[in-house]
UniProtKB/TrEMBL annotation:
Pfam families: LTXXQ
Biased composition (Low complexity): 30-44
One Gene Ontology term, aspect cellular component: periplasmic space
Signal peptide (UniProt feature, chain positions): 1-28
Biased composition (Pro residues): 144-153
Species this protein is from: Granulicella rosea
Top-level lineage group: Bacteria
Sequence segments annotated as region (Disordered): 30-51, 133-153
Keyword Nucleotidyltransferase (UniProt): no
UniProt keyword list: Signal
Protein name, per record: Protein refolding chaperone Spy/CpxP family
Length: 153
């Protein structure tokens, strides 16, 4: 029974890590102006994976005060990681347990690459963000605290 709980916890943590890795590339989009309200006919449907990815990069950009050059580099790193993750997900010859291990390695590699382009001050903040994410993920079998609602403007 304990092993099953540990596996579920690891799966939840992996899901959070995958969101972190896969979410950053779309966040490199210019967020200077608020998006136009959905008209029902133009643009992609709202609330998809791209929104989470955009929010992740925006948060990194804001919290770490990334330069435009750093944003471009993070986008390239995350695009590469996302492509590797998708290829691994589509690989039917690899066992699920092996996929999970490889996905964690891809995430760790991309995090190390991101960390390498940061200043010392940014690295400290980045490490704090990572620690908070891991702490939230270890909150229990459900994967931690539920997401907080966005602040009211």
């Amino acid at each position: 029974m304990k092993i099953e709980v540990k596996l579920r916890l690891r799966a939840a943590m992996l899901a959070m890590c995958m969101l972190s890795v896969c979410g950053l590339p779309a966040l490199a989009q210019d967020s200077g102006a608020p998006p136009a309200p959905p008209s029902g006919q133009d643009g992609p449907p709202q609330g998809g994976r791209g929104d989470r990815e955009a929010a992740m990069l925006a948060r990194l950009t804001r919290d770490l005060s990334l330069t435009d050059d750093q944003v471009k580099q993070v986008t390239v790193i995350e695009d590469d990681a996302r492509q590797k993750m998708m290829a691994l997900r589509n690989d039917t010859s690899t066992a699920q347990a092996d996929k999970r291990t490889k996905m964690m390695a891809i995430r760790e590699e991309s995090q190390a690459k991101i960390r390498a382009i940061l200043t010392d001050e940014q690295k400290t903040k980045f490490d704090e963000m990572e620690a908070k994410m891991k702490a939230r993920g270890a909150g229990g079998p459900g994967g931690g605290d539920p997401p907080q609602p966005p602040p009211q403007a």
